[in-house]
Structures
1.
Amino acid sequence: MGDGLPLSQVLSQSQVQMDPKSARAKFLASLSSLHSKTCHARYPKAPECAWLDQSWMDEFLDESESPQEWVPQQRSAKVVGLWKKAFEQGRAEISEKYKSQHHPGDIYRALKKMNPLHPGLEKAAIALAQSEASCFHSELYYYLGMKFEEAFPVQSAQDLAKGVYAKADQCGKSGSGAQRESYVRKSRFRLALIYLDQNECSQAVPLLDQIGKGGENDLTTRALYWKAYCAKDSNNKDSYLSIYDQLLKLNPLGFHTLSMLGGDSHLVDQLQKDIDPKVERRSKNRPEMNNWISTLEEVVHLGQTELARKFFSPTRVNPQALNALEIPVRLYIASLAYRAKDTFALFRILDSVFRTRSEYVVDATLKLFYPMKHMEQIQSQVQTVSPLLVAALIRQESAFNENAKSRVGAVGLMQIMPKTARLMDRKMTVQKLFQSQNNIRLGVRYFESLVERFSGDVELALAAYNAGPLAVDAWLKRYPTSNKLLFL
């Protein structure tokens, strides 16, 4: 696994603390807020500026598929209103005058408060599905389908959803219209799930095959899992085992992979190997990224953890861009994220490693990927659930960042809403909720109440913790399937 230094040795290296008011600290801090041209103009001889203007940064900052597009300020209320009016009138297009102002997310907002059984929506969907001549925005099909799913299990809603999802699949194959691949993929996946629920694997598998074409994406492992499900259902053992091997190599720690593994000892055998992966400090494949790595190295070595997190931001924007780097180099960057206490960046980097090289899923890397933090506090609070489950919940909710605060106001390790916290403790303030002991105490109490509410069903309790119990109640009515994984 490489000829560099052992990962354990790099992790144990001490840090040099530096006065945050020193000239060097101020200089490094100034870099994190500068664009490349400004940086070079102000500090023409600073190598730390070099990483800012490299072409590889464009890969990190390519947010074309990200939720950032949904920021309200970026959208025209006028255009959203026009879409809503069009749907109410049974149309699925707006005038040419405003088409240039259309932004992904406008359709979502227009549909958000509409009744899924509105006659206008039905008329628009039928016209879209039956149109042979043209293809529209791919998100139009996806969001319409999702709107109809809100009325499931009503048969007419199912038929309408299938129609628009199928049109998205057709348009995606033809490549015509404003087709964004992420929405085409999601439409295919939703349609495949409907067919699976109706025990029609023959209809679902071709859609799942399409999702896997063109390289790995956000739905690859899910598509593979359900292909394996259909292979097992039809007693196609060879296909099932082939997909099993693909999943194990592609994403050994993924939910769907672990669901297939069951009692298989493969991962346990791997963890028992005494392996200390090697790291490399610089990249040979992408030398243009080495200035960025050296800057990370410096701010971490000097003990500037808050500043280091700013420089780690590219890994949070688009961790897939790290795939261009050698595995030992990624492990080195992960060690820097660990020392900077940037757990979110650490998890993203290691995930990029595990998704491409399953042999790196060993004890040394998993201890970084699943840190056992705050276990004493957790164990002192739990009564009915496993402390490991609570630790996993904290990892997912905040990446163990005590100061985490979401866009909607959820606070601290367990991302508790202040309103929810005050229902359990009237004297609880937002400031106190950032303290780990208070956050864990109330978070565990709330989660255990959800487990009790859903009769011990941990998966439903976890879903309710994230989306709210009323949302889960609605999903249970919407998708009355006996297949637990299909429901999830």
Note: The CA atoms of residues 223 and 376 lie 39 Å apart.
2.
Amino acid sequence: MTSQQIIECIANFSEGRDETKIQAIASAIQSADVMLLDIKPDADHNRTVISFAGAPAKIEEAAFLGIQKAADLIDMDVHTGEHPRLGATDVVPFVPIQGVSMADCIAMANRVGERVGNELQIPVYLYEQAAKTPERENLAKVRKGQYEALKADMGKDPKWTPDYGPAKVGKAGGVVIGAREALVAYNVYLNTDDVEIAKSIGKAVRHSSGGLRFVKGMGILVDGKAQVSMNITNFNKTPVYRVVEMIRREAQRYGVQIQSSELIGLIPQKAMVDAAVWYLQLDDFDEQQILEQKLASASSADKNLLVDRGFLDALASSAPTPGGGSAAAYNAAMAAALVAMVANLTIGRKKYAEVESEMVEVLKQADTIRLSMMQAVEADAAAYQKVMEAYKLPKESDAEKTARNEAVQAATLVAAQVPLSVAQTCASLLPLACEVAEKGNANAITDAASALTFANAAMTAALLNVEINLSGLKDEAFIAMAKEEKDKLRKAAAEYAVQMEKLLQERAQISM
């Protein structure tokens, strides 16, 4: 069972008025067989945000095709608009959604950047977590001066030396490519046409001017109304409602009010739920109280039960795979799921507000581990399958015997590496299980203890599979490393088991 890998890309193009061009860019993106999530044109900004998601390879191709089409259609020498921009394709961020890491998105940003620079001859600048220098982490700093400064100062000012591509500017301008977490693009309209008020409020709320952390903001005039335009780069640490309330208070200073607001692109459900919970003052709210969420969970549970039965049926069959290694990985995935469960039962609870940020980080790590272990279920089975195939190779001649032995050794090495990786991942789960047991919802402490128990069992099973494969290996260096690692992992498991026993006694008055 392979967990689906999903990356989202939220590409910003410098065209918000010509529907024909917008559709042409969207069609180019969609031709890579990705899911088109949203197209948000803005005539005043003269800018369109196109959000799409899918498998990594397809997203990578779709992003390139979108940049290529925009370069063909948009002439920056005649472009005007309210929003800062650097080129025909202004910004292309990659966001990890499921089964991928931030490192994967950073690598993708580099690959796309290099290809755009080489094939399209467009200067590329990497930003946010893909930035090669601290000065380019902040998007506002990267494109300060916009297209006009880029064109005038390229080759003169070191600031404009691209990360990829030529040090020259064509009609497509430059493009900023990066990797980041999900953000909320959010605009608030005031009941005034005085843009100076919006600019003052934008300065007050944005972090770079001493405002709220994780908020980038500015004031502009849109459709005759003053607008505070913002990006909230971490809605967990600076929630949307906090931003709204600060704008409301700042607006009152100038005798104006919030008239309306809008989202650009998509918003994570949690950001909306957090806002609803805060404004409705729902203490101890559980997302399962949302009807649609409950129905979706019930449907998902039914579906997952069927999947679990399929795996268990395969495990119980006479087929050699999946076997103990796959079962170990699956057990590790369950351990990670239990850690995530305790974190989820802690987040949003008023009683545990002081540890919420820590639980959010634990949840993120646990979800990443769970997905990687689900992938390891198949990886282990595939590795053993390769071993069996290697043993079936012909061995009549000396050449065939040599080739067969080499294939067996190579396959056996992989068959040992996969469960060793599972065991190491289990070790990374142990401190997370103890952390949620110590700081998380006390009502779920036995779930945290169960997570540690499953992780230890998975580690033991995985190491058994390492041992059996080591017996057939001739790679002495790997054998020595694996045995040393095995001892280290078992020692860590014993230490965390003692820690969990102590936590259970202190918080729940029970013993393991």
Note: The chain has a mean pLDDT of 91.
3.
Amino acid sequence: MKVLIVDDHPLFLVGLRHIFTAASHDIELLEATNFADALELIIQDQDIDWLCLDLQIPGGNGIGFIERLRNRGITLPVAILTAALII
């Protein structure tokens, strides 16, 4: 399984990396700290199984990023993991 983690906090990325690798050795992790890099990875690597996404990253927001993916015809399961307050 290949998972793309998109988050701008280095400590959070380290923690998620540890959790995923401890859970299974069959998981390949890709990481991006901004939406532009995440989109590039998704376009280049068609084997990504799902996306673990923070909603609040400088330069954009997660919901808008998901909409951009859908507008390009890219459909991936998305797990939103965020500290953002959503009202």
Note: The two ends are 33 Å apart (CA to CA).
4.
Amino acid sequence: MTLRQDMIRTLTRAPLLLNNSTDLVRGFLLNHLADDGGFLGRDNRSDLYYTVFGLELLIALDCPVPVDSLKKYLNAFGQGRKLDLVHLASLTRCHANLADATSNTIKPALKEGLAERLLELRCKDRSFSTGVSDEHGNAYGCFLALAMYQDLDIPVSDSGAIRRCLETLIMDDGGFANEVTGRISAVPSTAAALCSYYMLGLPFPEKPVEWLIEQIHSHGGFCALSVENPLCMPDLLSTATALQALSYSRSKKIQREQHLDFLDSLWNPQGGFSGSWADPTVDCEYTYYGLLALGYLADI
């Protein structure tokens, strides 16, 4: 099972805690499905990145998937030759989701083109970055690349380079920085790095797991940076990704109720979630992370 498939499986458990609100989420998703087959981003135009989240929520909540219109939308991006890593991974993930939904596989020519573009985006250290022409990879880039390898069902070209990149990002406090030049531990980058270890089949280092748990806010949720910062505010991206990484670590140090209270504070009756108390905008991405967090909490 790929990481993508495992995340969708986790999303299917969210209704156990959503209860009667599940239909509101379905309605929200349908309202964000654009006429061209993609899902709306924050500018109310179809967006490849947001389409990943909308499509996977449709699948998880057992909604009809508009296969033909989605294929037409995705085909406009071809083999992703002009896309950066974030959008290339989004395109690949959408094609993999459609392949699963129709009991097919990604067509060989498309698969080859996506794989070639991925290799074109490698950094000089042979790992991957979400930047452009970077010499060194970063945690998020390595995570996206490994997920792409899984979705394309091809071997990782240089797993040792990715592992070495991740090792350079471990900070003294135990967390992972996203960039080799940043040197600041962050929850999303630590979660991405640990998920990369999981995809590579490597044992988890202990300190990052403990560091993640230490970043739980007193009102529930996880902060992006150190919880010791007086300006620390929990957010949904950090919370969902931390819960994901910790689920692979088999950690039992999570109190469900405090996180449910935090998620409830971000719920919007229109059927979605916002990203934080400071950002009330509701979109497909944060609704996805809200349901992903609920799915992990449903197992605790």
Note: The chain has a mean pLDDT of 95.
